[in-house]
């Protein structure tokens, strides 16, 4: 009953969020925020973690969330690193909900327990995503169905928030059939299912083979209950093709790193690299109208999904204003987007 009630409330809020986004382009729809860069794993493809960073203090997290709420942000997704390592994560979630925003999280799942799931329930978490890379662990990733299945069963029995399981295909995946096995397991447990694509070693789009494409389409069919059904670009990514769209990162989508800097996304850290407290409506307006050089081959699904609400309006005619990057911000770079999540919910990356 709790799960059903939270599902109805969350879906209602999501519909209101869509209406608000269609009515006005002056607020962020989705923000990824990093409370913890440190992670308890070291997956071979990941460029978004370290093993030394300290958690962002809770009062600073609340200050950043207050700034985002004042901008009119609809959805906050907590990511990392591994957010479950933050000692006051539940208070972060409670503050998101207190400020009227939808609360989501991306985790590797290893630190989940029955008590922790119940704690997340009480805090008001609404979406959770776990990416599972294989059926059995290998030297690239320990995030396997074998190691995580007991946690998935805990989630199925105790979580009142929505759960999405993301499987992977592409370069370096030893057993493509694993993606379908993982997707079926997710659906059997009552979760939504999505699929991601691992790129080649240089981070370039690489088309799937015929057998992989067949698996991809089957997993996408299993994911029809999730927001993946609203994505066109996923089929272009699977076939290594460029996609024509209008990226609204820096405006409708923000990535706020552990240092409190605003970036286009996790794969373009350094653009623009401006402190959140100094990020003005004029800056958001400029980024809304800025044509991103990385857009044709972009593979970041959450940014693509947000853009759906604005792709039909307001052509982009400005070039990136790279000179206004703040001193001390990360150097602009194209980080190889080796793990690409396709078809995730709007609160997922």
Describe this structure in words.
The chain has 349 residues and is of the alpha/beta class. 33% of the residues lie in helices and 14% in strands. Strands 9-8-7-1-2-3-4-5-6-10 form a 10-stranded mixed beta sheet, with helices on both faces. Strand 3 (102-106), helix 4 and strand 4 (127-131) form a beta-alpha-beta unit. The two termini are 28 Å apart.
Helix and strand topology:
Blueprint: H1 2-23, E1 30-33, H2 58-71, E2 75-78, H3 89-98, E3 102-106, H4 114-123, E4 127-131, H5 145-158, E5 162-170, H6 177-188, E6 192-198, H7 210-222, H8 233-238, E7 253-256, E8 261-263, E9 272-275, H9 281-288, H10 301-307, E10 339-342
Parallel strand pairs: 1-2, 1-7, 2-3, 3-4, 4-5, 5-6
Antiparallel strand pairs: 6-10, 7-8, 8-9
Helix pairs in contact: 2-3, 3-4, 6-7
State the total count of DSSP E strands: 10
Structural class: alpha/beta
H/E topology pattern: HEHEHEHEHEHEHHEEEHHE
Cα end-to-end separation: 28 Å
Most strands sheet: 10 strands, mixed
CA radius of gyration:
19 Å
Per DSSP, the total helix count is 10
Work out the strand percent: 5-15%
Q: What is the residue-averaged pLDDT?
A: 85
Dominant shape = globular
Give the fraction of residues assigned to helices.
25-40%
- In order across it, which strands form the biggest sheet? 9-8-7-1-2-3-4-5-6-10
Counting copies of identical and different chains, the oligomeric state is single chain
Poorly predicted runs: 323-349
List the keywords:
ten-stranded mixed β-sheet; alpha/beta; single chain; 10 strands; 33% helix; 349 residues; disordered C terminus
